[in-house]
Design a protein that fits this description.
The chain has 5 helices and 49 strands. The protein is α+β, with helices and mostly antiparallel strands. Among the domains are: 53 residues, no CATH class; 71 residues, Complement Module, domain 1 (Ribbon); 53 residues, no CATH class; 53 residues, Laminin. The strands form 19 sheets. It has a 4-stranded antiparallel β-sheet, with no helix packed on it. Strands 10-11-13-14 form a 4-stranded antiparallel β-sheet, with no helix packed on it. Helix 2 crosses helix 4.
């Protein structure tokens, strides 16, 4: 009972507290609004349903009440606050905000300027900033008409600057030239304000000029004039010029007066030549015009004193053929032509060959010949190489007698050559060649057998004697020694060298052969009576009494065999190695 009584007051308390919380949650927001003193219309203008109200006001008349008009004005004011109060400033241009949309503006350039780039001139307000609608920066630049040249810059309306000065006015003529010039082939516009005209072939505007310039004046092509102020035309060319008051009416065609004749009116009436000019023998005549002929020489021939290919002009004057270069004298002949002129008085003959005077030869007579006979030299004699004297390989030699020598002390034969018309010896000095001669030789013609000339006398080696060591004290015949070859290159010493596989008794392979002057004989080994010979050598010694009988081969005694007689035979009557040698026979094994 007591517990139930206590629980009832607690429940009442809890119910009271919950009621008070509901009342507070309802009243406190209204008190907060009253404290701020803000019009409810502002909350409506700032609420998320503003777009809904705007849509409604667009379709409803404005006289529905002052409350709706008030809401619309508030919304417009807020939109203007979101964009800057000023629009971007442009040099040489302005930006104007749209009346229908405060977030959009349009750029307009001043007169004489154009928007660059020109695609889109609209600005939009985004995040409190004016930005190009297409995202590309815009500017107003001056405009020049016509455009500036490639090297110029438009710095102000219709003002171009090239470098540090103003540009020349640009010509702006039509791309095609609509003018017609008589006998002109074509007129081509250029890049410098003019057009180039070209006469057709055989025509010219002035002597030597077949091209002319058509100027552009006031943006129009203007026909040029000549020195007399007449419109320019292309005149026909006549070469040579029309004579005797003739008029050139077409290329190389003259209109002649009745008193003249000829293609170029060069002849007076009654002054024509009859027939063709006289053609000198061996020359060619060709007609250049009715009254002009040309004389030329055949190939590899020329007119006297003229070059190859030069022709002579023959003209009819007053009824006669005139040869001005000859002064009327005939006949005239052509001369053979040599590409390289003949020298030393030579004459060019047919086939580009020169006929040389006496004392000269060569293709162009450039070589001075020597006398046909050779100079006589005392104590000397001549010889040759056995070729025919007319052969290009023929050579002539001179050699001094024994006991005599050339000034240069050259021994033996010396070639004689022809140089600049003189016979000379190549190894002699110029002054000696002026007078070829032999002089007494010191030690005669030289010491023989390796003797040395000392103070004009020959000092001989052992085994030689004589004034020039020309005598050998031992005979030419040498002793016969088997299996050797004789080396005479070191005379007066002579050496014997054993053949391969052989050697002397002392195992040497070379011995000196000495001349015993008192006996006039050769000895081997340096002592009289010595009997040296080359014996066969066996690198591996022979065993068991065997003898080396050939290089590397042993002759075995009875009872032994083998390469070095190292094998002993046990049986009797065996054959022994080596086999017997029989001349002109072969050994066959069975």
């Amino acid at each position: 009972m007591a517990s139930s009584w206590c629980s009832q007051p607690m429940m009442m308390t809890m119910v009271m507290m919950m009621m008070m919380m509901v009342i507070m949650m309802t009243i406190f927001p209204l008190l907060a609004v009253a404290a701020r003193g803000v019009d409810v219309a502002d909350d409506v203008n700032n609420g998320p349903w503003m777009e809904h109200i705007d849509d409604i006001t667009k379709d409803r008349p404005t006289d529905e009440g002052p409350r709706t008009e008030h809401i619309i004005k508030k919304r417009r004011a807020k939109e203007l606050k979101e964009c800057p109060a000023f629009t971007p400033k442009f040099s040489h241009g302005v930006a104007t905000v749209s009346e229908n949309d405060p977030k959009r503006a349009t750029i307009t350039c001043n007169q004489g300027y154009e928007l660059t780039p020109p695609d889109n001139a609209t600005l939009i307000c985004t995040r409190h900033k004016w930005l190009p609608e297409d995202g590309v920066y815009k500017t107003c630049l001056p405009k020049c008409s016509p455009p500036c040249p490639d090297n110029g810059t438009c710095v102000a309306p219709d003002v171009c600057q090239c470098g540090n000065s103003s540009c020349a006015p640009r010509i702006n003529c039509p791309k095609e030239v609509d003018l017609v010039v008589e006998n002109a082939d074509q007129i081509i516009p250029g890049s410098i304000g003019g057009a180039l005209g070209i006469c057709i072939s055989g025509y010219e505007v002035s002597p030597g000029a077949s091209e002319f310039l058509v100027p552009c004046i006031g943006n129009n092509w203007t026909l040029p004039t000549d020195q007399d102020g007449h419109p320019i035309t292309c005149h026909p060319i006549c070469f040579p010029s029309c004579r005797n008051e003739g008029v050139c009416v077409a290329p190389n065609k003259c209109k002649c007066p009745s008193t003249t004749r000829g293609t170029f009116c060069e002849r007076l009436a009654g002054s024509e030549c009859t027939g063709r000019p006289i053609t000198p023998k061996g020359m060619n005549l060709s007609a250049w015009s009715e009254n002009v002929y040309g004389l030329t020489c055949p190939d590899n021939y020329v007119l006297p004193g003229r070059g190859l290919g030069v022709s002579l002009r023959v003209t009819c004057i007053k009824g006669k053929w005139l040869y001005p270069d000859w002064k009327g004298h005939l006949p005239l002949t052509c001369e053979p032509y040599c590409l390289i002129s003949c020298r030393n008085g030579g004459k060019c003959v047919e086939g580009e060959k020169c006929q040389c005077p006496t004392g000269y030869e060569g293709h162009y007579c450039q070589i001075k010949t020597c006398p046909k006979s050779y100079p006589k030299i005392e104590h000397a004699y001549y010889s040759d190489n056995g070729m025919a004297p007319t052969s290009p390989d023929y050579k002539r030699y001179v050699e001094c007698e024994r006991g005599w020598t050339l000034p240069s002390q050259t021994k033996g034969k010396v070639e004689v050559r022809c140089t600049e018309g003189h016979w000379i010896m190549m190894n002699e000095r110029p002054r000696d060649n002026q007078r070829l001669h032999c002089i007494p030789a010191p030690c005669g013609s030289g010491c023989e057998n390796k003797g040395q000339c000392i103070k004009g006398k020959c000092v001989c080696l052992t085994g030689t004697s004589g004034e020039f060591c020309q005598k050998r004290m031992c005979p030419e015949m040498l002793p016969v020694v088997k299996n050797v070859w004789v080396d005479r290159s070191r005379f007066p010493k002579i050496y014997l060298s054993c053949m391969m596989g052989y050697g002397f008794n002392n195992n040497h392979t070379e011995l000196e052969m000495t001349c015993l002057t008192q006996h006039h004989q050769w000895v081997v080994g340096g002592t009289e009576g010595s009997n040296e010979t080359c014996n066969p050598l066996c690198p591996i010694p022979c065993w068991n009494g065997g003898q080396c009988w050939a290089p590397g081969e042993c002759l075995c005694p009875k009872g032994y065999t083998g390469k070095q007689c190292e094998v002993k035979l046990e049986l009797e009557n065996h054959c022994y190695f080596p086999l017997p040698q029989v001349e002109f026979a072969e050994v066959f094994w069975e």
